[in-house]
Write a structure and sequence with these properties.
This protein is α+β, with helices and mostly antiparallel strands. The protein has helices at residues 5-9, 14-20, 24-91, 99-131, 137-168, 179-266, 281-307, 312-319, 323-328, 344-348, 353-373, 399-425, 463-478, 486-492, 527-545, 548-561, 566-580, and strands spanning 330-342, 377-382, 385-390, 435-451, 456-461, 482-485, 496-505, 513-521, 590-592.
Length: 596
């Protein structure tokens, strides 16, 4: 399976390529900045529009409305002033009817007149103050006209005050004559004042109405602004979703590729290749994953290669975490196995190199099958010989029994090989007989990497290895196929039928090894072999006791039961030799091996 990010994502343009160079953190920060910028623009726009409405409202409430109230107050004061004038005339005029009431109304007139002048002055100051602020042009124009009208009112009002004073003041000399002209003058001035006030009021009302309309328009605009703000928020939301989907897709496609690749690796498929154009953390992860798969592929290739030379379990441990511990060496109790093909040298001399290789490969394949089936570790091939072992950590359960069963099954494999020999050797008849010799021993060994710094071999060492090798060779002397030491037989006696053969001491070794022949699984050995074993063991006891006659008779009966039985023949020959030259009195039945 070849999965690439390009196949999943498709052709990428420059923008995604540039986006792919961003880290995941930068992508999310960038998305947040874009969304916040849109929201900020919407907020600023709403704030600016709301500020305009607020300014218009403040202008209406703090400028125009106070002006309208002031102008209305001036108009009211002027009306009161006119009323005071009429009352003063009622009680005074050219002839005083009620001097006290006339004086009171005249004082009232003067007071109102001063109040109107004061208000006009305050109105002009307010207009000038407002003209100095930031106000719309149309408002400034109307304020200018109000300024002129207020000045006109102030002038007309001063003339009105003089003419009315001359008309109603009894102390004025003009009161003695010319009453009609003075009344006409006062009335004319009053009309001019009222006309000026009316114009000023009209301007004020027009300004207020215009501003009210403007404010109503701004309030409507505020609603539109709210709608616009909502639309901007929705736009920001949609843009956020689109950008999120784009970034998420750019992120999830390679993530899914990583998941698929990991699942493939988990299923054992190491032909996975991930390529990512992004330089963010996911791209780095894809690169690291590809590197990891490459390393696994290399290790798998190494393992496959070494598995042809070493047991896969040994390869796993040498490549695993406990490699240093294994290479340093450790002491283990194991069962060691040696096997060799009897008569192979003579057979090899009659074969061509091609036929010889074909034969040896076939033999080793057949011989290795039971070892591997029973979880043994093949240590090495030495020509046609095989060295193997059973024990922890490779065979933790019943290593001796597994080794014995492998040996018994290997003996059966030789029968298969004999049937194939004519075809392998290219013979129609006269194929040679072959047999296998196997030695088994159990005990402590040292497991580790042995060799120089340039070349090493993971193997086992110790006396147990030497004993197994000697027992394999001892088969030739005793005419047997499978010999095992006592330590092995003790562990399998409940499942395997055996026959004790001898007490064997190797050259240079003072301690003898009790040697047994393996006969077969309990319940699978024939009665004749069991009778042979019993008779042989009786003869062996007489042999070790030095009763040569009884021993010789027992071994003779063994040869009658099984003509050609190798051990019986060997001991029969020894008995004959000991009759002539008995061994030392303390010999103890130990036979000194002259082999390896």
């Amino acid at each position: 399976m070849d999965m690439t990010a390009e196949e999943r994502v498709g052709p990428a343009d420059d923008a995604p390529m540039r986006l792919g160079r961003w880290t995941i953190g930068r992508k999310f920060v960038g998305l947040s900045v874009v969304l916040l910028s849109i929201m900020l623009v919407a907020a600023l726009w709403s704030f600016m529009q709301a500020a305009r409405v607020n300014r218009e409202t403040i202008l209406l409430e703090q400028v125009l409305e106070p002006l309208r109230r002031e102008i209305a107050a001036i108009e009211q004061e002027t009306a009161n002033e006119e009323l005071a004038t009429e009352r003063a005339l009622r009680y005074g005029g050219p002839q005083l009817r009620d001097p006290a009431r006339h004086a009171a109304e005249l004082a009232r007139f003067e007071e109102l007149n001063d109040d109107v002048d004061r208000r006009l002055t305050m109105l002009q100051k307010a207009i000038r103050r407002y003209q100095g602020t930031e106000i719309p042009v149309e408002v400034a124009i109307i304020l200018g006209r109000l300024q002129l009208e207020s000045e006109s009112v102030q002038r007309d009002h001063a003339a009105y005050r003089r003419s009315v004073g001359a008309y109603i003041d009894p102390a004025a000399p003009a009161m003695l004559n010319g009453n009609i002209e003075r009344e006409a003058a006062a009335t004319g001035d009053e009309k001019r004042v009222l006309a000026s006030l009316e114009r000023m009021g009209t301007e004020s009302d027009a300004l207020a109405r215009a501003h009210e309309q403007r404010l109503a328009a701004m309030e409507h605009r505020s609603f539109i602004i709210s709608v616009e703000s909502l639309l901007l928020a929705v736009l920001a939301f949609l843009i956020g979703i689109i950008l999120s989907l784009m970034i998420t897709r750019r992120m999830m496609v390679p993530v899914q590729s990583l998941i698929d690749g990991a699942e493939e690796v988990g299923r054992g498929n190491l032909d996975v290749s991930l390529k990512s154009q992004s330089r963010d953390e996911i791209g780095q992860l894809a690169h690291a994953f590809s590197s990891m798969v490459g390393e696994l592929r290399t290790k798998a290739a190494m393992k496959d290669t070494f598995s042809s030379y070493l047991d896969p379990r040994v390869v796993d441990r040498l490549l695993g975490e406990r490699r240093a511990e294994l290479e340093a060496g450790e002491k283990r109790e194991m069962t060691v196995f040696f096997s060799d093909l009897q008569g192979f040298s003579a057979i090899s001399e009659t074969l061509t190199p091609t036929a010889l290789v074909k034969l040896i490969n076939r033999y080793l394949s057949l011989a290795a099958e039971p070892i591997q089936l029973h979880r043994g570790v093949i240590d090495k091939y030495i020509g046609d010989a095989i060295m193997a072992y059973w024990g922890p950590p490779f065979t933790p359960d019943d290593p001796a029994l597994s080794a014995v069963r492998a040996a018994l099954e290997q003996r059966a494999q030789i029968d298969r090989l004999e049937l194939e020999l004519p075809e392998l050797m290219g013979l129609r008849r006269g194929a040679p007989r072959i047999a296998v010799r196997i030695g088994l021993a159990s005990g402590d060994v040292v497991v580790g990497s042995i060799g120089s710094t340039a070349s090493r071999n993971f193997t086992i060492m110790g006396d147990t290895v030497n004993i197994a090798s000697r027992l394999e060779g001892a088969n030739k002397a005793y005419g047997t196929m499978i010999l095992a030491d006592e330590a092995t037989v003790r562990q399998v006696s409940h499942r395997i039928e055996t026959r004790e053969i001898d007490l064997l001491a190797a050259v240079g070794k003072s301690e003898a090894v009790r040697v047994y022949e393996l006969l077969g699984e309990v319940g699978e050995v024939g009665d004749a072999m069991l009778d042979l074993r019993e008779t042989f063991e009786n003869g062996l006891a007489d042999y070790r006791a030095g009763d040569w006659d009884r021993a010789g008779s027992a071994f003779a009966r063994c040869l009658e039961i099984a003509p050609g039985d190798g051990p019986a023949q060997v001991f029969a020959d020894r008995v004959r030799a000991f009759r002539t030259a008995p061994p030392a009195a303390d010999w103890g039945g130990v036979w000194q091996s002259v082999g390896k």
